[in-house]
Amino acid sequence: MAFRAFLLAAALLALTCFNATASDPSLLQDFCVVDKTSKARVNGFPCKEAKNVVAEDFFFSGLHLAGNTTNKQGSAVTAVNVAQIAGLNTMGISLARIDYAPYGLNPPHIHPRGTEILTVLEGSLYVGFVTSNPDNKLFTKVLDKGDVFVFPEGLIHFQFNYGTKNAVALGGLSSQNPGVITVANAVFGSTPSITDDILAKAFQVDKVTVDRIQAQF
């Protein structure tokens, strides 16, 4: 009986340790501002000396400016992650402003290292995400100004401005560097290209269709 209890405790401890390391690491000091002069390569960034840290290391200005949505998708993302704010290093959070032209789309994509919580600031959005295999269930919602929606980490999601006016949203992410993989770009615009034999079979279309899509990227 005691041995079973020990095994259960060990299993719970292992699970706890796994969960604790499954996202950005926790702080072990007040802050760890990125040292951009260091040549060290770690999972994250090395810290610069605390005596050299200044207020500007925790500051970013520009989210009041609308992004340029004159592109094929009609959307623009202004990221505020560790690349913009050195003081975000090891903090486990980041931010993004997303602008949408009328009928603009933030196309299906994933954040491999972060959950996203989206707040609509202006306009209305049709949003959704798809669960993993085998169900691939689609969850969707129409969001108006002030509404909030969550996209789980690593799942394909999108936002679409179905209205005739511009829309703006603010996304918070649970990583200093959540990453983004736009599905269409990754599949049809990789370098070098995935062969059309593979894509034709994967999408159950002919090679001419694959070539036509790849040409867009």
UniProtKB/TrEMBL annotation:
Residue ranges of every copy of the Cupin type-1 domain listed in the record: 61-211
Domain of life of the source: Eukaryota
GO CC terms, sorted: apoplast
Disulphide linkage map: C32-C47
Keyword Secreted: yes
Extent of the signal sequence: 1-22
Family statement: Belongs to the germin family.
Name the UniProt record assigns to this protein: Germin-like protein
Provenance organism: Urochloa decumbens
